[in-house]
């Protein structure tokens, strides 16, 4: 009886979620390729890449709420058969994504003094600015691609998103090999070569998504790009009000990890480089949960659009269990093979590799600690976005990450002298508090039918 009840939800969740997981992993693999190849180029360059990509992602997190927020809106509108709402929300999310990309570009162009002001080593800050002056132009294609991903995911067209993302990976690796190391007669550009490679791939992926979204027969009735320049101020405001809290939530969570990068930079360049490797390994597993979180948003949004409260609960149970199973596998891998995983990023001939390997393998234990809570907090966010509840999750994120995570990390690492392990215990504390509060809000409010999105307490 239980199997018959949940089997359709499991099939639908995996059919929708696995391509999203794959596309997130492929996108993440581009960052992994950059880290691995720069890690083999130089330690200072690797530390600069860690800081530069953290800087980029802080600004990206703030703008990504518009593209993520419309996923639930579009899914609910499709379930209601409201074609006009689909077009209006997707189009204005693209407008807001473009506006955000243009507004944050100066911060990346003049990033070196900012990085120096927060205590980074001069050589690391210099290399980081070199990277960001090129990679910063990728903010626009990345945000627009994210919005188009949401648009297509809400229509359950995730397979094409996966293939477009996958194709970008070998292109990025090839361009990295040519431009970072100066192969095939190209100049040796180091971190700037990695930035050029990433920007090229991001532009190609955005163009491919635009072409597919315009061609897709099932989407033609929405006329997404017809008279794209025409403003829709009411819908722009609605998407902004929904998306800004999501962006701030992502900023609060991303800020926790970026804050740990900054503080690790205060400890030392080697520690920062090893920390970046351990964090990226954790980020790879996070992509699994992020894909399931996106699926949760669509599935719950569809059920809400149909007015199906039972279907919403069953979909939520299913996606939570799937993500929990992924987390258990990640915990086992991190505890059993820490040195093997960290060693994938390092050049065995580099004399600093043994030190980086020792530090990084030690941090993998703490990464294993927060796998379960990291999974549950992002699934909680996905469920709440499906019912268009974004303001209180923003408050929960700020409390969990900035009033718990960062102070605990700083206190343990520097006041109590625990060092790098203390920073990671701060991450564990912040993510655990967020997971508990977010899941409690969904299951004790929306899932029980006590609240509608408009009635959810602030």
Automatic annotation (TrEMBL):
Membrane topology: Multi-pass membrane protein
InterPro entries listed in its UniProt record: MATE_fam (IPR002528), MATE_MdtK (IPR050222), MdtK-like (IPR048279)
GO cellular component annotations of the record: plasma membrane
Transmembrane parts of this sequence: 55-80, 92-111, 131-153, 160-182, 194-218, 239-260, 272-294, 315-335, 355-373, 394-415, 421-439
Annotated compartments: Cell inner membrane
Superkingdom of origin organism: Bacteria
GO biological process, one term: monoatomic ion transport
A Pfam entry, by short name: MatE
UniProt keyword terms in alphabetical order: Antiport, Cell membrane, Ion transport, Membrane, Transmembrane, Transmembrane helix, Transport
UniProt GO molecular function: antiporter activity; xenobiotic transmembrane transporter activity
PANTHER family registered for this protein in UniProt: FMN_FAD EXPORTER YEEO-RELATED, MULTIDRUG RESISTANCE PROTEIN NORM-RELATED
Protein name in UniProt: Multidrug-efflux transporter
């Amino acid at each position: 009886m239980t199997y018959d009840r949940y089997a359709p939800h499991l099939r639908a969740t995996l059919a929708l979620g696995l391509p999203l997981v794959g596309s997130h992993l492929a996108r993440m693999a581009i960052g992994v390729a950059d880290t691995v190849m720069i890690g083999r180029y130089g330690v200072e360059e690797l530390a600069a890449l860690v800081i530069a990509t953290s800087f980029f992602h802080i600004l990206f997190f703030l703008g990504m709420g518009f593209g993520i927020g419309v996923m639930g809106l579009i899914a609910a509108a499709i379930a209601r058969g409201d074609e006009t709402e689909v077009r209006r929300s997707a189009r204005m999310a693209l407008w807001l994504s473009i506006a955000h990309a243009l507004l944050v570009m100066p911060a990346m162009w003049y990033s070196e003094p900012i990085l120096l002001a927060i205590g980074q080593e001069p050589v690391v800050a210099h290399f980081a600015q070199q990277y960001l002056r090129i990679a910063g132009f990728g903010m626009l294609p990345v945000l627009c691609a994210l919005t188009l991903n949401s648009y297509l995911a809400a229509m359950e067209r995730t397979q094409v998103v996966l293939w477009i993302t996958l194709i970008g990976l070998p292109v990025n690796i090839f361009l990295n090999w040519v431009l970072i190391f100066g192969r095939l007669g190209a100049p040796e550009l180091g971190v700037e070569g990695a930035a050029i490679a990433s920007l090229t791939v991001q532009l190609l992926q955005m163009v491919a998504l635009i072409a597919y979204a315009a061609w897709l027969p099932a989407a033609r009735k929405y006329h997404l790009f017809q008279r794209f320049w025409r403003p829709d101020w009411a819908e722009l405001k609605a998407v902004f009000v929904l998306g800004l809290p999501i962006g701030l939530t992502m900023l609060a969570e991303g800020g926790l990890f970026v804050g740990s990068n900054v503080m690790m930079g205060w400890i030392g360049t080697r520690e920062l480089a090893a920390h970046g490797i351990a964090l990226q390994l954790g980020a790879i597993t996070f992509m699994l949960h992020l894909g399931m979180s996106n699926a949760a948003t669509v599935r719950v949004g569809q059920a809400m659009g149909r007015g199906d409260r039972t279907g919403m609960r069953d979909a939520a149970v299913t996606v939570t269990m799937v993500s929990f199973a992924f987390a258990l596998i990640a915990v086992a891998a991190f505890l059993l093979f820490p040195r093997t995983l960290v060693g994938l990023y390092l050049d065995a001939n580099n004399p600093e590799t043994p030190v980086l390997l020792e530090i990084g393998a030690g941090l993998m234990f703490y990464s294993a600690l927060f796998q379960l809570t990291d999974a549950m907090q992002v699934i909680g966010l996905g469920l709440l976005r499906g019912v268009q509840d974004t303001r209180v999750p923003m408050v929960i994120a700020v409390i969990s990450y900035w009033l718990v995570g960062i102070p605990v990390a700083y206190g343990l690492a520097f006041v109590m002298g625990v060092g790098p392990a203390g920073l990671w215990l701060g991450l564990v504390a912040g993510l655990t508090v967020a997971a508990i509060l977010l899941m409690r809000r969904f299951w004790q409010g929306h899932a029980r039918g006590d609240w509608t999105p408009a009635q959810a307490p602030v």
